[in-house]
Design brief:
The complex is a heterotetramer, with two copies of chain A (486 residues) and two copies of chain B (453 residues).
Chain A (H helix, E strand, L loop, with lengths): L2 H4 L37 H12 L22 H7 L2 H4 L11 H18 L3 E3 L5 H18 L7 E5 L5 H8 L3 E5 L9 H7 L4 E6 L12 H10 L3 E5 L12 H4 L3 E3 L20 E3 L11 E7 L2 E7 L18 H39 L3 E2 L10 E4 L1 H7 L3 H10 L6 E2 L8 E4 L7 H20 L1 H5 L12 H6 L9
Parallel strand pairs in A: 2-3, 2-4, 4-5, 5-6
Antiparallel strand pairs in A: 1-7, 6-7, 8-9, 10-11, 11-13, 12-13
Helix pairs in contact in A: 3-11, 5-11, 6-7, 11-14
Chain B lengths: L7 H11 L29 H15 L3 E2 L12 H7 L2 H4 L11 H18 L3 E2 L6 H15 L7 E5 L4 H11 L5 E5 L24 E6 L9 H10 L3 E6 L20 E5 L15 E5 L12 E5 L5 E5 L6 H4 L12 H38 L5 E2 L8 E5 L4 H10 L2 E2 L2 E2 L10 E5 L6 H15 L1
Parallel strand pairs in B: 1-13, 3-4, 3-5, 5-6, 6-7
Antiparallel strand pairs in B: 2-8, 7-8, 9-10, 11-12, 12-15, 14-15
Helix pairs in contact in B: 3-10, 5-10, 6-7, 10-12
Classes of the chains: A alpha/beta (486), B alpha/beta (453).
The structure holds pyridoxal-5'-phosphate (PLP) (2 copies).
């Protein structure tokens, strides 16, 4: 049932009244609403019951294993939520004097420093609201750098074919053409092609390392040299940072700028699609162009005072990305998580996310599943291709994914990266225990068995969820996006 | 090892299964030349107890402030149920609902959100959120340029009565696509768009769209009907950048002029999201049905399952980066889903009447505030036209210092306009929502009196 | 799966470490534990996931209609939870100086006053932890009163046969013999019998009004006179106060002492069985005997200072019932609720809880269900007897109850009060909307229909819950109360 | 009408269905003579916004205090997850799990609690909670009298080292059943039961049980092994009244003496429940298997369903008031379920090691505190024997005034013993759990120094 179906004209949740309804006397009549807005008219109990019941229809980290490749669905510490929801943090107006926000600003400043340290970079701007906005910022910074050199002929950004869709989309938003670089069968960037396409028109390259294929780009130093020699810069898509935290740093690999998805590596919640945050971190060369605002510090009479750095202090900045300073509440959660890990804990994240991925990969391989890149170590994730299952049993990666839901596991990422057919990109993360991984392997084996004995059951999965498989074609054809406009 | 469940025995048996003898071996493909410069002083993590002590003292340091600032971020009442429900693990720790069958909770809620937001804006449809009000305006601008095939112009008319930071953000985000923002001056008396600035010469190559704020950054009300009709008659699309609480009472974009605005966007924060130093908030974006394929961001559609049962799913994904890549309508991927969850529950619990009361209460408290402040020597209302729930006052002393003094009394006195609008002199943007009591207003006024004399 | 089955020896949730483990040096070895305690050894994610999933197996007000007679399962305002969970309230030590707790003590004092007003009584003690402890307190006060009069021969407490089990049990804890009074077919106390049994041995009577039969005891004034003439006192069991809030007051009816279940009438949560609170409120005669501590007030230089009243100020008190001062956190929630209602809102509670009950009763009657007391107005609850369904269709009240769960409604109270065969005691409360009541009627009709067509389905219900019907006999016979002792 | 969903139209149609024309008619059976004296000044309710403002200011007034008091209520670290989960609607707003199939969440959790608590106490089984530690001791006493059929005595030996309020509560709750509490003196040097008081003359009619606290109210450790064996050899049952955090490290009742205690009870608050001015807390009660039918309170048993699947249900209900009425083991009905929910999640998240660390940290901080305070002129440790996590110190000035001065500095300096133990002089019971930092201890000590000199 939809909330609107609980609505009853004239019902008022009067516990939530805030003021007597009075005419807005000085407002000209023409400026007043003609028809009242249609919001649900429900009691508080109806609302609480409806949304509590709705929530139960979700899978989530708090309820299910969620091995969604590229998304790093790990435990979101409850402590980070409780502590960042304190009234002192929640009730601070973004334009309030900095002296009224030293608690939050200290934390943000510390986080800037931590992210520099973790990435081997010079300076951080926390303002991007998500990875994609971080990508935009990073590429815009590359552009600003070339512009500052008077080097305005560079028109291309290189992006591997395995890259996440946001990479090319962000490059385009920065006014660049995108050139795709193929990946070789080992999962590395095809160096031959790269050598051929890099040139004076190359503004830079966007890479993740490990790549979305779940392997470490071994030639990264050579790629960096190649780009830098040609005058291009290197952008690091930090979505996969979980695999290398405390092990190796993008700055040391030769990257010039990076964004970090704190909603992945730093375990802030995904919230059913967001918000996250995508801080950008740059080396000396690109630091001047970081988006504003950033947090600065001044010492005064022995105490540190934190304040916002804006246009005045950062004249070369690419500018603002949001009305204020990005997703502060998310950044606080990331900060709390980072402080709880310490540098020692961060290295453990890499250790155990990689251990879990390699273990799971090996167990699936032992059970006869085909790996996309069988001869290499997995990083924090790896790819299974169900090409032969599709061919022999007629069940697709999608069918496996849907049937896994019935087994109580969220599906891995399907059909991404696009170059591997019938693929499942599997990322268990370090916060899952061995028993859970073993249960997942059993489920995969069971589904393959079902696919032989009872393929219809698999193709019609899920069978036990609030809905059966949904008609996406109908959804797009008979667009129904607004209950009031049905 | 916080949050890592492995016992030593498990680790060992997993390594055995993999066939390596230590975890380090799993990293052997990383060239040794890259192996991290170990951190100077390897830092032990804090326990939850320790971080709690730290963060409690920091939050307490920032607490206890009375806020008279608005300017795009407003402290409104939020029913307790909103965040008690929103932070339930099933909403809080879920991913983007790509697996629709395992995400009906989030998906149905987003569909409900789209419906409510469309109704509030008087528009056909809404997406499922963008980052914030400023970037939503940038996306609206990009969308308008794509959608206005007739005009072919890449120029956008944007009045100076739009939030200065919004104008800066739009500039940052659209400039590389060759889009030009042309600013419209405001009338010094009224604080609304100067009608003189609307005269377009015949040589003018035209504009793709006009942005209309409601209320304006100054709290004043633009003549949205006239402006909308004027823009449409000049082949422009109309983008409304509006405050959602105000839309409970004021004419929503869909009702502007003869045909209504084409796109409505704005900051969703007033709908149940705490101030939180500026984020996370969420941007909303609504449009006419005809523009749906140019809309950026996620859309949820209602459909049916194999058993013909109602269900909800992401739809028109071909607009998005994960399908269309470099040709997508936007690069947005992660959006502000949990904020929309809160806003949806907020709108449900407040209902139409609740939102109207909030608008009415904010209107009358702001008027109370301005009237009281105006009795102080050296304080004057800057503009003569009606305002909704904030207003510009001018002062006899520089604003920055005054705000600092007020800060020592734990009062946020408003927003200093002297940098963004130096022509206004010592100008302060003040706001009092329904939350501000008469006592608090009096306290603010008394403090101001003491400073000014 | 039980939490113990997730446990793995040697696993430590190190985020929750609080101190390095050190030997307790001065403690003699013989005083140290020999075997370590066996608690689950799990990760934080395992714990969060386990208990989140467990919670979803519950019905609750936040998820289901819960027409459980005598329990007043109404909406528990979330605001009351949030506001009473503020750190200033949570971190106050019970023995801290009263000056460090003026916020909480002001609220408790105000609540004492409100409860006096609502009941028409003289003084309140908030300390009883639940209704039953309130009953104990009230009866002990009656005893203390008689003792103070030197009237020590009174040995009996009268209790109607329809009374809640706590009433006789509480009377016995106070050293009284219990004499049961029959109820007549109209649901009133049988006055004839009462007249016969009241005498010099009568210490008092325990009544609810409305009674657990869901009707108002019309002869209450006569009963009061009868008791008082015989030197006995009247105890009011406040569990059913919801029906008369703001309409009539126990003090006006002639009661001497009353307990209030704030977890019913004042909408504090039931928490899966508790905690509640059972404040006792007494008239002038019994006020001196109220349990301690109570909150008192002193004016000092124009401000009110609140402090605890203990033995010194209340020498005739029956004494302490708990180590400190009862369930303060629950009382805060009750206070918040009471303040949100105001006296006008309280009257509305009675209005609409009675409206809902009478409506539901009428609709069920129209559909052919048999009412226990058909010719009377319902109060906030009423009784359906399924005697004829049991006889004709072979399905019991229990079967109906279990099948209702499948229909998404919590079952009404079954087999209470004991004197009505195959009964359902139905209390919809005022916070449920008409559509929900209508859905309940439909479900009842559907189940009766099923009972005709497919009685096995009803007898084996529930069919859609986490478990099917459970074997209670086995549970009692093969006692399994401790996982470690299986 | 807060929380009432009825629209006017619905009310009307419901009245029509009933066949009356106004709600007042439904109350016609109430004699008019009883119709309430309308409240003097009918008071409008506050909105959530208004009550929030009120309760926030009250909570803030009480906030920011540093606590060195124990005495039965301890401020320990509580993982955030505990209350985020406990206040989920499905736990928070559920009723007693009488309908087992619709309450498997609560029931399984309670079964897990029973198991954990039994293990912590070293006992066979646990009930599912009583009101608090004091009333749990009263129930234990009643239970012992019922269970000790041999002794036939209604007298109980209870040492003065048991919490004074517990002794008062037990007295209030058991006296009407003819049970007599005989107090045992403590040794002035050691602060533990005086062994001399254990001599029982031959004429002595005997006792049903001996209560042994661990730690004692003074923080000291009774010689539980000797005491237990002595009591058993005199035909008494042994009731341990213990602190659950201490039981992570100290010998639990089940291990006392040759046969272990018969009943273990205590205050559950230290297991994840906030101080909250004294409640809600919960009492725990464990016993030997043989005594199960005398146990008061709810019990959850594991059983099977129609499909032979594991499930949980209330069991042995014939002990309880709703079945056995006047012959029940106790009058308890509503217990402290939600507190047990919190405690269960707490014990799971802390684990054995976490609890041991908490015990160890409280031990060492209390010892740090006492050592530091002992360096102050006029402060001395009252007893010479080992203590766990609190201790009695004596002072050169009256305690009550001193605590008042400390209170003005937002320090709770401990518990004044001068009323309950006048013979100890100016005695103060102090405690520092794992939460107290070195700085806080130093601050307390400095404040004390200033007051005392
Ligand atoms: C590899 C990769 N890059 C970029 C992104 C985009 O980040 P965001 O969703 O935070 O915008 C993602 C996230 O989905 C990703 O997996
Ligand atoms: C009529 C009646 N009296 C007394 C009680 C006992 O109250 P409590 O459960 O709070 O001890 C109840 C609650 O179940 C009840 O319904």
């Amino acid at each position: 049932m939809l909330i609107f179906e609980h609505s009853q004209s004239g019902r008022i949740n009067s516990a939530q009244r805030t003021a007597a309804l009075q005419p807005l006397q000085e407002i000209p009549k023409a400026m007043l609403r003609k028809q009242r807005a249609q919001l649900p008219e429900i009691s508080e109990l109806q609302g609480v019951r409806h949304y509590t019941q709705l929530s139960q229809k979700n899978f989530s980290i708090d309820t299910h294993f969620y091995p969604l490749g590229s998304c790093t669905m790990k435990y979101n510490p409850r402590g980070a939520n409780t502590l960042s929801m304190q009234s002192g943090f929640l009730n601070r107006h973004p334009a309030a004097d900095a002296e009224l926000g030293q608690g939050v600003m200290t934390s943000l400043y510390d986080l800037q420093e931590i992210l520099c340290e973790v990435t081997g970079m010079e300076a951080t701007s926390l303002t991007p609201a998500a990875g994609a906005q971080g990508e935009f910022a990073g590429v815009a910074m590359i552009r600003a750098y070339h512009d500052a050199q008077g080097d305005t002929a560079r028109s291309e950004i290189l992006v591997p074919d395995a890259a996440h869709g946001t990479n090319p989309a962000s490059a385009v938003m920065c006014g660049y053409k995108v050139k795709e670089i193929p990946t070789n069968s080992d999962g590395d960037v095809d160096l031959e092609t790269l050598r051929q396409v890099v040139g004076p028109q190359t503004a830079g390259i966007m890479l993740t390392n490990p790549s979305t294929l779940g392997v470490f780009e071994r030639e990264i130093e050579e790629i960096a040299a190649l780009l830098h020699q040609a005058g291009g810069l290197l952008y690091y898509d930090g979505a996969n940072l979980n695999a290398i935290l405390g092990k190796t740093r993008p700055g040391d690999m030769g990257f010039d700028v990076i964004h970090i998805n704190v909603h992945k590596t730093f375990s802030t919640p995904h919230g059913g699609g967001g918000p996250g945050a995508g801080p950008v971190v740059a080396n000396k060369r690109l630091a001047p162009y970081l988006p504003i605002p950033m947090v600065g510090v001044k010492e005064h009479e022995g105490t540190s005072h934190y304040h916002w750095l804006t246009e005045a202090e950062r004249p070369e900045s690419i500018g603002r990305l949001s009305a204020w300073s990005g997703n502060v509440g998310v950044l606080l959660r990331a900060y709390i998580y980072a402080k709880m890990l310490g540098t020692t804990g961060m290295e453990r994240v890499a250790d155990y996310s990689v251990l879990n991925a390699n273990y799971l990969m090996k167990q699936l391989q032992k059970k006869g599943f085909t790996l996309a890149i069988p001869e290499r170590r997995a990083t924090h994730e790896f790819i299974v291709t169900l090409k032969s299952e599709a061919k022999e049993l007629g069940v697709s990666a999608m069918d496996f994914a849907k049937r896994l839901l019935d087994y109580g596991h969220h599906a891995p990422t399907t059909y991404f990266p696009l170059l591997v057919p019938e693929c499942l990109l599997i990322e268990p993360t370090e916060t899952e225990d061995k028993a859970t991984l073993d249960a997942f392997v059993e489920a995969m084996v069971a589904i393959r068995q079902e696919s032989k004995e009872n393929p219809e059951q698999v193709k019609e999965a899920p069978l036990t969820l609030p809905v059966r498989r949904l008609d996406d074609v109908r959804a797009a054809r008979e667009l129904d996006l607004n209950w009031y406009n049905q | 090892m916080p949050f890592i469940p492995h016992t030593e025995a498990e680790t060992r048996s997993m390594l055995d299964a993999i066939g390596v003898d230590q975890i380090a071996t799993l990293f052997e493909e990383i060239p040794t030349s890259l192996c991290a410069n170990a951190p100077q002083q390897p830092e032990q993590g804090l326990s939850e107890m320790e971080i709690s002590q730290l963060m409690r003292s920091r939050a307490n340091a920032d607490d206890g402030v009375t806020c008279f600032a608005g300017g795009g971020a407003y402290q409104h009442h939020i029913p307790a149920a909103v965040w008690e429900l929103t932070t339930r693990g099933e909403f809080y720790s879920a991913y983007t609902p790509y697996q629709a069958e395992a995400s009906q909770g989030t998906l149905q809620l987003l569909y409900e959100y789209q419906s409510m937001m469309s109704s509030l804006m008087g528009m056909d449809l809404s997406n499922a959120s963008l980052y914030d009000g400023a970037s939503a305006l940038a996306e609206a601008v990009l969308m308008a340029v794509r959608a206005n095939r007739k005009s072919k112009s890449k120029r956008i008319l944007i009045p100076k009565t739009v939030h200065p930071n919004y104008r800066k953000v739009v500039h940052t985000l659209v400039r590389h696509q060759g889009i030009e923002l042309v600013e419209l001056e405001y009338d010094a008396k009224n604080g609304t768009i100067n009608p003189d600035s609307l005269k377009i010469s015949d040589e003018d190559p035209g504009y793709a769209a006009l942005v209309i704020p409601l209320p304006s950054y100054f709290g004043t009300l633009e003549d949205v009907h006239t402006l909308t009709d004027w823009a449409h008659s000049h082949g422009m699309l109309v983008i409304g950048s509006v405050n959602p609480i105000a839309m409970a009472s004021l004419t929503p974009p869909g009702e502007w002029g003869k045909e209504g605005a084409d796109i409505a966007c704005g900051e969703g924060q007033p709908l149940g999201i705490p101030l939180a130093s500026g984020g996370p908030y969420f941007g909303f974006l609504c449009c006419r049905k005809a523009l749906v394929r140019q809309l950026p961001g996620r859309l949820i559609g209602r459909t049916r399952d194999l058993d013909d049962k109602e269900g909800f799913t992401l739809t028109l994904q071909a607009r998005e980066q994960h399908i269309r890549r470099s040709k997508a309508t936007s690069n947005i991927c992660t959006n502000q889903g949990l904020m929309v969850t809160a806003a949806t529950i907020f709108m449900s619990l407040m209902g139409t009447t609740g939102l109207e009361q909030m608008a009415s209460g904010s209107y009358s408290n702001s008027h109370k505030l301005v009237e009281r402040l105006s009795t102080i020597d050296g304080v004057a209302l800057a503009f003569s036209s009606p305002y909704f729930h904030e207003a510009v006052i001018t002062l006899s002393t520089p604003v920055a210092e005054l705000l600092q003094i007020l800060a020592t009394q734990k009062i946020v006195g408003g927003i200093d306009l002297s940098n963004d609008y130096p022509e206004l002199g010592n100008a302060l943007l003040v706001c009092a929502t329904e939350l501000r009591s008469d006592d608090e207003i009096e306290q603010f006024a008394t403090a101001l009196e003491q400073i000014l004399c």
